[in-house]
Amino acid sequence: MKKVPHLKSRKRRKTGRWAHYYRRFDRAKGKEVEISLGVHGLHPSDPKVLAAWAAEHARWQDMPPGIESPKAETFGWALDLYTSGNDKWAKYSEETKKSRLAIFARYRKAQGSRPIKTITSDAIERALYAKGGHAAVNEYKALKPVFEHLRRLGFIAKNPMAGIELDRPATQGFAVAGADDIAAFQERWSVGTLERLVFDLALYTGAARGDLARLGRNNIKGDLLVYERHKSKVTAYVPLTPELREVISRTPDIAPTFILNSFGRPFAKESLGNLFGDAARAAGISARLHGLRKAFCTYWAEKGKSTHEIAAMAGHMSLSEVERYTRAADRERMVKLLVRVA
């Protein structure tokens, strides 16, 4: 079996029982320390031994110095186990990881020392019900995979969150930019302003703010604008219409992205969203950048493109999402506004 760094497994002579430790030099203490992994009795080839090692190793590698190791098979220990050496966690976007780590930090503080086998479905359901709203939904999404990881490794017999149902809050989603909104923005922000450039590029590419901030001439492939959506990793194929070509012609020929801030650098997605939000309020509209993404779908639906074709352009993973976006009023007027080349 391949040697794992800092993992020390010893078979006791008297009992024949295996014991497993994480052994490493602690600079703060000036000596080598040996930490029990809490999985004694298991054979070194058991996957639970490697999982326990991965959690402790990640703590030493990634966490700030001075963080005490939680006791084995407590909830704090389980969180470390889930976020280290777990392929599914590794595949989440950095944005998703950041939001879920914030949730984990709160639970680590409140429930970190609690043994995982004492956590029941009833206790979790009551806690989520008391919190309610979108916060409860977000915590449910973050915590359920943690318990599922424990179940698959054999530390618990059943995922206590399996079967829990939440009262999901109703949502209207992002406001679609209708014909009146588009006309109002075009009236307030003339061609040549940064606000209008952001608006037009969002309309004609259908890109979400994170993708819009990264688009540039390197994404032009023949008659298409091609890019991979940051959130879903789905590739979007946007036709280079005369309107889109005209907008691109207003951007710098040599630049990393179409849209640059006052320092000549690409925008962070949050800053780009804030810029558009301020511009939209100045124009008297409520739609945000995501609302323009919906208008993009509506525009192409009116031009006769099928749901599948629009999905390929917008990079959507769900056809139902495209269909929902294209249910808009005043579509004919919207198209007339969008094909008006300044």
Question: What report would you give on this structure?
Answer:
The structure is a single chain. The protein is mainly alpha-helical and 342 residues long. It folds into two domains: 7-153, no CATH class; 179-338, hpI Integrase, Chain A (Orthogonal Bundle). The protein is built from 15 helices and six strands. The chain has helices at residues 47-62, 75-82, 87-90, 94-111, 121-131, 133-153, 179-188, 194-205, 209-212, 242-248, 269-283, 289-302, 307-314, 319-325, 331-338; strands at residues 7-11, 18-26, 31-36, 220-221, 224-228, 235-239. Strands 1-2-3 form a three-stranded antiparallel beta sheet, covered by helices on one side. Strands 4-5-6 form a three-stranded antiparallel beta sheet. Strand 5 (224-228) and strand 6 (235-239) form a beta hairpin. Helix 8 packs antiparallel against helix 10 (242-248), helix 8 (194-205) packs across helix 12 (289-302) and helix 12 packs antiparallel against helix 13 (307-314). It is elongated. The termini are far apart. The model has no long low-confidence stretch (mean pLDDT 83).
